[in-house]
Write a structure and sequence with these properties.
The protein has about 325 residues and is an all-alpha fold. It has 16 helices and no strands. The chain has two domains: about 170 residues, no CATH class; about 80 residues, N-utilizing Substance Protein B Homolog, Chain A. The longest helix has about 40 residues. The protein is elongated, with a radius of gyration of 25 Å.
Length: about 325
Protein backbone atom coordinates (compact mmCIF):
# COMPACT_ATOMS: atom_id res chain seq x y z
CA UNK A 1 0.00 0.00 0.00
CA UNK A 2 2.72 2.47 1.00
CA UNK A 3 5.20 3.82 -1.51
CA UNK A 4 8.65 5.18 -0.71
CA UNK A 5 7.56 8.81 -1.24
CA UNK A 6 4.91 8.58 1.43
CA UNK A 7 7.39 6.92 3.77
CA UNK A 8 9.74 9.87 3.18
CA UNK A 9 6.89 12.27 3.96
CA UNK A 10 6.19 10.51 7.26
CA UNK A 11 9.89 10.61 8.17
CA UNK A 12 9.99 14.30 7.21
CA UNK A 13 7.05 15.10 9.49
CA UNK A 14 8.62 13.24 12.40
CA UNK A 15 12.04 14.87 12.01
CA UNK A 16 10.41 18.28 11.61
CA UNK A 17 8.77 17.91 15.02
CA UNK A 18 11.97 16.58 16.68
CA UNK A 19 13.53 19.19 18.97
CA UNK A 20 16.57 17.29 20.28
CA UNK A 21 20.08 16.72 19.03
CA UNK A 22 21.86 13.67 17.67
CA UNK A 23 23.08 12.72 21.16
CA UNK A 24 19.55 12.64 22.56
CA UNK A 25 17.37 9.57 22.68
CA UNK A 26 14.73 9.58 19.97
CA UNK A 27 13.04 6.30 20.80
CA UNK A 28 9.80 8.16 21.46
CA UNK A 29 9.91 9.82 18.03
CA UNK A 30 10.77 6.51 16.32
CA UNK A 31 7.81 4.90 18.01
CA UNK A 32 5.63 7.80 16.87
CA UNK A 33 6.90 7.36 13.30
CA UNK A 34 5.99 3.66 13.21
CA UNK A 35 2.63 4.36 14.85
CA UNK A 36 1.92 7.09 12.29
CA UNK A 37 2.73 4.69 9.45
CA UNK A 38 0.64 1.90 10.98
CA UNK A 39 -2.25 4.30 11.48
CA UNK A 40 -2.54 4.59 7.71
CA UNK A 41 -3.94 1.06 7.76
CA UNK A 42 -6.62 2.19 10.20
CA UNK A 43 -7.67 4.85 7.71
CA UNK A 44 -7.83 2.21 4.98
CA UNK A 45 -10.02 -0.03 7.14
CA UNK A 46 -12.24 2.89 8.12
CA UNK A 47 -12.99 3.78 4.50
CA UNK A 48 -13.46 0.16 3.45
CA UNK A 49 -15.88 -0.32 6.34
CA UNK A 50 -17.84 2.68 5.07
CA UNK A 51 -18.73 0.66 1.96
CA UNK A 52 -20.00 -2.13 4.21
CA UNK A 53 -22.13 0.36 6.13
CA UNK A 54 -23.61 1.66 2.88
CA UNK A 55 -24.79 -1.84 2.07
CA UNK A 56 -26.30 -2.22 5.55
CA UNK A 57 -27.98 1.17 5.29
CA UNK A 58 -29.48 0.11 1.98
CA UNK A 59 -30.97 -2.99 3.62
CA UNK A 60 -32.39 -0.91 6.44
CA UNK A 61 -33.79 1.64 4.01
CA UNK A 62 -35.64 -0.98 1.96
CA UNK A 63 -36.93 -2.72 5.07
CA UNK A 64 -38.41 0.47 6.48
CA UNK A 65 -39.87 1.50 3.13
CA UNK A 66 -41.64 -1.84 2.66
CA UNK A 67 -43.21 -1.59 6.14
CA UNK A 68 -44.65 1.89 5.66
CA UNK A 69 -48.39 2.09 6.34
CA UNK A 70 -49.09 3.41 2.86
CA UNK A 71 -46.23 1.74 1.04
CA UNK A 72 -46.41 1.91 -2.73
CA UNK A 73 -46.29 -1.14 -4.95
CA UNK A 74 -42.69 -0.33 -5.78
CA UNK A 75 -41.81 -0.02 -2.08
CA UNK A 76 -43.45 -3.36 -1.32
CA UNK A 77 -41.54 -5.01 -4.15
CA UNK A 78 -38.29 -3.00 -4.32
CA UNK A 79 -35.32 -3.35 -6.59
CA UNK A 80 -32.73 -5.12 -4.40
CA UNK A 81 -29.86 -4.59 -6.76
CA UNK A 82 -27.87 -2.41 -4.37
CA UNK A 83 -28.23 -4.63 -1.31
CA UNK A 84 -27.32 -7.64 -3.47
CA UNK A 85 -24.29 -5.94 -4.98
CA UNK A 86 -21.74 -8.74 -5.08
CA UNK A 87 -18.73 -6.58 -4.23
CA UNK A 88 -20.44 -4.99 -1.24
CA UNK A 89 -21.56 -8.42 -0.02
CA UNK A 90 -18.04 -9.73 -0.54
CA UNK A 91 -16.80 -7.02 1.82
CA UNK A 92 -19.62 -7.51 4.32
CA UNK A 93 -19.13 -11.28 4.52
CA UNK A 94 -15.34 -11.15 4.64
CA UNK A 95 -14.52 -12.80 7.99
CA UNK A 96 -10.83 -11.87 7.87
CA UNK A 97 -11.73 -8.25 7.24
CA UNK A 98 -14.27 -8.26 10.06
CA UNK A 99 -11.65 -9.72 12.41
CA UNK A 100 -9.19 -6.99 11.49
CA UNK A 101 -11.81 -4.29 12.03
CA UNK A 102 -12.58 -5.75 15.44
CA UNK A 103 -8.95 -6.13 16.48
CA UNK A 104 -8.17 -2.54 15.57
CA UNK A 105 -11.42 -1.26 17.11
CA UNK A 106 -12.59 0.34 13.87
CA UNK A 107 -16.20 1.02 14.84
CA UNK A 108 -16.47 4.73 14.03
CA UNK A 109 -19.63 4.42 11.98
CA UNK A 110 -21.54 2.99 14.93
CA UNK A 111 -20.94 6.23 16.80
CA UNK A 112 -20.86 8.61 13.84
CA UNK A 113 -23.60 7.10 11.71
CA UNK A 114 -24.63 10.49 10.33
CA UNK A 115 -21.70 10.31 7.92
CA UNK A 116 -22.99 7.01 6.57
CA UNK A 117 -26.34 8.76 6.07
CA UNK A 118 -24.64 11.59 4.18
CA UNK A 119 -22.91 9.21 1.79
CA UNK A 120 -26.01 7.03 1.38
CA UNK A 121 -28.25 10.02 0.55
CA UNK A 122 -25.73 11.25 -2.01
CA UNK A 123 -25.69 7.83 -3.63
CA UNK A 124 -29.50 7.73 -3.84
CA UNK A 125 -29.57 11.20 -5.39
CA UNK A 126 -26.85 10.46 -7.94
CA UNK A 127 -27.13 9.73 -11.65
CA UNK A 128 -24.88 6.73 -11.00
CA UNK A 129 -27.54 5.16 -8.80
CA UNK A 130 -30.39 6.02 -11.16
CA UNK A 131 -28.59 4.39 -14.07
CA UNK A 132 -27.51 1.38 -12.01
CA UNK A 133 -31.05 0.73 -10.79
CA UNK A 134 -32.72 0.85 -14.22
CA UNK A 135 -32.64 -2.95 -14.30
CA UNK A 136 -33.05 -5.60 -11.64
CA UNK A 137 -30.51 -7.95 -13.18
CA UNK A 138 -26.81 -7.43 -12.84
CA UNK A 139 -23.37 -8.95 -13.29
CA UNK A 140 -20.27 -8.95 -11.13
CA UNK A 141 -18.51 -6.53 -13.46
CA UNK A 142 -21.44 -4.09 -13.34
CA UNK A 143 -21.55 -4.32 -9.53
CA UNK A 144 -17.80 -3.73 -9.35
CA UNK A 145 -17.92 -0.76 -11.72
CA UNK A 146 -20.73 0.79 -9.71
CA UNK A 147 -18.78 0.53 -6.43
CA UNK A 148 -15.67 1.95 -8.11
CA UNK A 149 -17.69 4.90 -9.44
CA UNK A 150 -19.37 5.50 -6.08
CA UNK A 151 -16.03 5.58 -4.33
CA UNK A 152 -14.45 7.80 -7.00
CA UNK A 153 -17.29 10.29 -7.47
CA UNK A 154 -19.07 10.34 -4.10
CA UNK A 155 -16.93 9.04 -1.22
CA UNK A 156 -13.41 10.20 -2.07
CA UNK A 157 -14.31 13.86 -2.84
CA UNK A 158 -16.88 14.27 -0.04
CA UNK A 159 -16.02 17.45 1.89
CA UNK A 160 -17.93 16.51 5.05
CA UNK A 161 -16.16 13.18 5.20
CA UNK A 162 -12.85 14.98 4.63
CA UNK A 163 -13.54 17.30 7.57
CA UNK A 164 -14.50 14.35 9.73
CA UNK A 165 -11.26 12.50 8.96
CA UNK A 166 -9.20 15.64 9.58
CA UNK A 167 -10.89 16.09 12.94
CA UNK A 168 -10.23 12.47 13.92
CA UNK A 169 -6.59 12.43 12.92
CA UNK A 170 -4.76 15.39 11.41
CA UNK A 171 -2.14 13.26 9.63
CA UNK A 172 -4.86 11.29 7.83
CA UNK A 173 -5.32 14.15 5.39
CA UNK A 174 -1.80 13.57 4.06
CA UNK A 175 -2.51 9.84 3.96
CA UNK A 176 -5.85 10.08 2.19
CA UNK A 177 -4.57 10.16 -1.43
CA UNK A 178 -2.43 7.04 -0.82
CA UNK A 179 -5.31 5.17 0.83
CA UNK A 180 -7.89 6.21 -1.78
CA UNK A 181 -5.56 5.06 -4.55
CA UNK A 182 -5.01 1.72 -2.81
CA UNK A 183 -8.75 1.14 -2.33
CA UNK A 184 -9.56 1.95 -5.94
CA UNK A 185 -6.78 -0.35 -7.13
CA UNK A 186 -8.20 -3.21 -5.06
CA UNK A 187 -11.78 -2.54 -6.17
CA UNK A 188 -10.83 -2.43 -9.84
CA UNK A 189 -8.87 -5.69 -9.58
CA UNK A 190 -11.35 -7.70 -7.50
CA UNK A 191 -12.83 -10.75 -9.20
CA UNK A 192 -15.70 -13.02 -8.34
CA UNK A 193 -13.24 -15.71 -7.24
CA UNK A 194 -10.95 -13.35 -5.28
CA UNK A 195 -9.93 -14.60 -1.86
CA UNK A 196 -10.78 -12.81 1.40
CA UNK A 197 -7.18 -11.68 1.73
CA UNK A 198 -7.62 -9.50 -1.38
CA UNK A 199 -9.05 -6.70 0.76
CA UNK A 200 -6.33 -7.03 3.41
CA UNK A 201 -3.28 -5.66 1.57
CA UNK A 202 0.11 -5.36 3.22
CA UNK A 203 0.95 -1.93 4.59
CA UNK A 204 4.55 -2.23 3.36
CA UNK A 205 5.53 -3.77 0.05
CA UNK A 206 8.22 -5.73 1.89
CA UNK A 207 10.23 -5.67 5.12
CA UNK A 208 12.88 -3.53 3.41
CA UNK A 209 10.46 -0.62 3.16
CA UNK A 210 9.74 -0.66 6.89
CA UNK A 211 13.46 -0.91 7.62
CA UNK A 212 14.07 1.96 5.20
CA UNK A 213 11.66 4.19 7.16
CA UNK A 214 13.44 3.53 10.45
CA UNK A 215 16.95 3.76 8.97
CA UNK A 216 16.27 7.02 7.13
CA UNK A 217 14.90 8.53 10.33
CA UNK A 218 17.75 7.31 12.55
CA UNK A 219 20.62 8.01 10.16
CA UNK A 220 19.39 11.53 9.41
CA UNK A 221 19.27 12.39 13.11
CA UNK A 222 22.51 10.60 14.01
CA UNK A 223 24.40 12.47 11.30
CA UNK A 224 22.64 15.82 11.49
CA UNK A 225 25.69 17.76 12.81
CA UNK A 226 27.85 16.74 9.84
CA UNK A 227 24.99 17.22 7.39
CA UNK A 228 24.19 20.64 8.88
CA UNK A 229 27.79 21.70 8.24
CA UNK A 230 27.50 20.52 4.64
CA UNK A 231 24.34 22.58 4.20
CA UNK A 232 25.99 25.66 5.77
CA UNK A 233 28.93 25.31 3.42
CA UNK A 234 26.65 25.17 0.40
CA UNK A 235 24.41 28.07 1.52
CA UNK A 236 27.02 30.69 2.48
CA UNK A 237 25.37 33.23 0.20
CA UNK A 238 21.95 32.60 1.74
CA UNK A 239 20.49 34.28 4.80
CA UNK A 240 20.03 31.36 7.19
CA UNK A 241 16.90 32.92 8.68
CA UNK A 242 15.27 32.97 5.25
CA UNK A 243 15.79 29.25 4.60
CA UNK A 244 12.54 27.46 5.40
CA UNK A 245 12.87 24.98 8.26
CA UNK A 246 11.17 22.33 6.16
CA UNK A 247 13.69 22.88 3.37
CA UNK A 248 16.49 22.21 5.85
CA UNK A 249 14.79 18.98 6.96
CA UNK A 250 14.38 17.84 3.36
CA UNK A 251 18.00 18.66 2.56
CA UNK A 252 19.21 16.72 5.60
CA UNK A 253 17.17 13.70 4.55
CA UNK A 254 18.24 13.91 0.91
CA UNK A 255 21.94 14.26 1.79
CA UNK A 256 21.65 11.38 4.25
CA UNK A 257 20.03 9.25 1.58
CA UNK A 258 22.73 10.11 -0.93
CA UNK A 259 25.50 9.31 1.55
CA UNK A 260 24.09 6.39 3.54
CA UNK A 261 21.84 4.47 1.15
CA UNK A 262 24.10 3.12 -1.61
CA UNK A 263 21.37 1.13 -3.37
CA UNK A 264 19.08 4.14 -4.02
CA UNK A 265 19.86 5.94 -7.31
CA UNK A 266 20.83 9.59 -6.99
CA UNK A 267 18.22 10.66 -9.55
CA UNK A 268 15.50 8.92 -7.56
CA UNK A 269 16.55 10.66 -4.36
CA UNK A 270 16.66 14.11 -5.97
CA UNK A 271 13.37 13.71 -7.83
CA UNK A 272 11.55 12.43 -4.75
CA UNK A 273 12.64 15.29 -2.49
CA UNK A 274 11.92 17.90 -5.14
CA UNK A 275 8.37 16.57 -5.50
CA UNK A 276 7.88 16.57 -1.73
CA UNK A 277 9.19 20.15 -1.55
CA UNK A 278 6.74 21.27 -4.25
CA UNK A 279 3.86 19.79 -2.28
CA UNK A 280 4.80 20.74 1.27
CA UNK A 281 7.15 23.73 1.23
CA UNK A 282 7.41 27.14 -0.45
CA UNK A 283 6.98 27.78 -4.20
CA UNK A 284 10.76 28.25 -4.64
CA UNK A 285 11.88 25.45 -2.34
CA UNK A 286 12.34 22.83 -5.04
CA UNK A 287 14.63 25.18 -7.01
CA UNK A 288 16.68 25.92 -3.89
CA UNK A 289 16.98 22.26 -2.89
CA UNK A 290 17.82 21.17 -6.42
CA UNK A 291 20.62 23.74 -6.62
CA UNK A 292 22.23 22.60 -3.36
CA UNK A 293 21.98 18.90 -4.19
CA UNK A 294 23.28 19.44 -7.71
CA UNK A 295 26.43 21.15 -6.38
CA UNK A 296 26.95 18.42 -3.83
CA UNK A 297 26.57 15.57 -6.33
CA UNK A 298 29.08 17.19 -8.70
CA UNK A 299 31.60 17.47 -5.87
CA UNK A 300 31.13 13.82 -4.91
CA UNK A 301 31.52 12.73 -8.51
CA UNK A 302 34.69 14.80 -9.02
CA UNK A 303 36.24 13.44 -5.83
CA UNK A 304 34.98 9.92 -6.55
CA UNK A 305 33.30 9.75 -3.13
CA UNK A 306 29.76 9.05 -4.25
CA UNK A 307 28.85 5.89 -2.38
CA UNK A 308 26.58 4.09 -4.83
CA UNK A 309 26.57 0.41 -5.76
CA UNK A 310 25.19 -1.21 -8.87
CA UNK A 311 24.69 0.05 -12.40
CA UNK A 312 22.72 3.16 -13.27
CA UNK A 313 22.77 4.59 -9.74
CA UNK A 314 24.56 7.83 -10.56
Amino acid sequence: MLNRRHIRIKVMQTIYSFKGGESDSFDKEQKFLLHSLDNIYNLYLLLISLLIEVQKRSEDHLDKSSKKHLATKEEKNPNKKLINNEVLLMLKNNVLLQDELEQRHINNWELDSEYVDIIFREILASDLYEQYMQTKTTSFSEDRDFVVDVFTDIIAPNNKLYDYLEDKNLTWIDDLPVVNTAILKLLRKVKQQSLSIHFLPKLYKDIEDKEYAVELFKKTLLNQSKITEIIKDKTQNWDADRIATLDTVLLKMAICEIQKFPSIPVKVTINEYLEIAKEYSTPKSSIFINGILDKLIKEYQESDTLNKTGRGLM
